[in-house]
Structure formats: C-alpha cells, structure tokens
Amino acid sequence: MVKIIAVALPKGGVGKTTTAVNIATAFALSKKRTLLIDVDPLGSCASSLGFTREGIKNDIFNVLQFSASLQKVILKTENQFLDFVPVKQLTYFDEVRLSRILTNEQLLGNILRHKAASYDYIVIDCPPYLVGPTNAALVAADSVIIPITPGQYALDAVQKILDRLKTIKRNFNRHIKVEGILLTIYEYNTKVSFATKKELFKKYPNLIFSTSIPKNTKVGEASIHRKPVLIYDPVAKASQAYLSLSREIIQNRDAFNYHSPFGE
Ligand SMILES: Nc1ncnc2c1ncn2[C@@H]1O[C@H](COP(=O)(O)OP(=O)(O)OP(=O)(O)O)[C@@H](O)[C@H]1O
Ligand SMILES: [Mg+2]
Questions:
Q1: Interval 115-146: pLDDT, tens
Q2: Which of 22, 36, 148, 219 to mutate to test the pocket of ligand 1 (most atoms within 8 A of CB)?
Q3: How many domains does the chain have?
Q4: I need a surface site. Which of 78, 149, 193, 226 has the fewest CB within 10 A?
C-alpha cells in the first residue's frame, strides 16, 4: 500500500526541499517505487533533479484543477524507481485561484490514493507556510517529516505545526502521524545546536529521528550541479545521513513503530 509522507515546517530554509529530494532518492535507491511531488509554488525540486522550467508544461495544480490527469504530469527521472510531479512558476492570480481550489481539503489525497496507489512512497515537498498547499498535503498524508535547523524560531515553528496537526487529526485525517522531527544543517559542537537538541528531547522525547543531517558543503555544490547530493556525491556525510534516515523510515514502517504527540 502507498505511504504518503509530507515534508513540512512553517519556516523557510530549514532543509525541507533538500530532505524531500534526497529521501525520495534514497527510497528509489532501495528499489522502492517512489513519487516525489512538489507543492511549493517556488518549484525548487525540479532544479534539484535537473529539470528546467521550459521542460515543465503541466503541474500538480493542473491536476487539482482537472485540466490534466496525474499520469500526464508525471515526469520520469534517471532512476527508474523515482518519478516526479513538478510545479510551474505560478503568477499571483494562479496562487489566488489555487487557494480557492484548495479549500476542498480532501482533493489531493483523493487523487493520490486513487491514481498513484502503485507507488510504495509518495514524498511531498511543502512551502514554508501552513495554509493552502501544506494544509492539503497534511490532509492527504500518512505521516510528516518535520525538518528543523538549530535555533529558537525553528522550535516555535515545530509547536505551530504540531498544533495544526492536532486540528487536522481531529477534523480531516485521523491517521496522520509524525514520522519524526529531523535536525538538519546540523553543526556539531556549537552552543545553539546543543541547546536546540536538549530542548527538543525535553519537549518531544519520542518524536526525534535518531539520524540528523550534518551541515555539509557538498549539498550546495550538488544544487549547483542540479543533482540530489545523494547522486552528486554518495559518500558525502549528508548523503550517508539521508541513506540512514531512509533506513530508519523503512524500518519504522515495517515495525509500525510510531509515537504520537497527541497523547494516545
Ligand atoms: N545539510 C546541509 N548542509 C549544508 N547546506 C544545506 C544542507 N541542507 C540544506 N542546505 C542548504 O540550505 C538552503 C535551504 O535548504 P532548502 O532549500 O532545502 O530549505 P527549504 O526549507 O526547502 O527552504 P524554503 O522554505 O525556502 O523552501 C539551501 O541553500 C540548501 O542548499
Ligand atoms: Mg523548499
């Protein structure tokens, strides 16, 4: 059965896109049939996978507007186990229209469960805010990866998404789980990293992935070469960490090993 994982936090620059692209790549390298979907109107995933804007004719929002089928917008990647659904750059008016369509919260989930059920994993890269596309992704998802960088603002954003998840669970999607909180762009031996980790373990002891993703210059180099770091340099520290994260998630799935932040 397909498992839908959203990568989300209402804060910019915490490694959501890097995590979505590399975790999807890691699943595909483990021969799991994987679909990566970009729902951030900025559309950064495409560039990370080597696609140019000109190569993108239709996108996930065409699917939500019923002007294209999901099959029609799926792009094949170099890895036979990894498919991709992109986002075109949206105008202001596209975004306004989209927010109207997304008031139907169940639409994305219904389309994915009916038309993409043959995948093992669907990974959704969300924008840095909760309304609209992120809300739709969380209503559609089985679980959410919450990436955070060290610092107080990211901790505040974690509480914000957990509060939102509580409401979504109550009203729209009672199956949603926290896959895990992921420390990214992590610098060992700094005071702020240590303090953030300590605070996270105090507040959410069962929700933190064992794996964290180190700060690694290879990630930036890979994006200039329009490749996931896992493909650009498979032995880089960040690549190895994303592989380890994928193993953690696959094992959690096999073991049904989830912890709920909602006190159940
Ligand atoms: N492990 C890492 N080491 C070093 N740099 C990283 C790492 N992960 C991500 N970055 C860099 O940090 C920046 C932000 O990453 P990314 O785009 O993945 O974040 P995001 O949360 O998706 O941002 P946005 O909210 O704007 O969509 C990028 O320039 C990326 O190359
Ligand atoms: Mg992003």
A1: 999 999 999 999 999 999 999 999 999 999 99
A2: 219
A3: 1
A4: 78
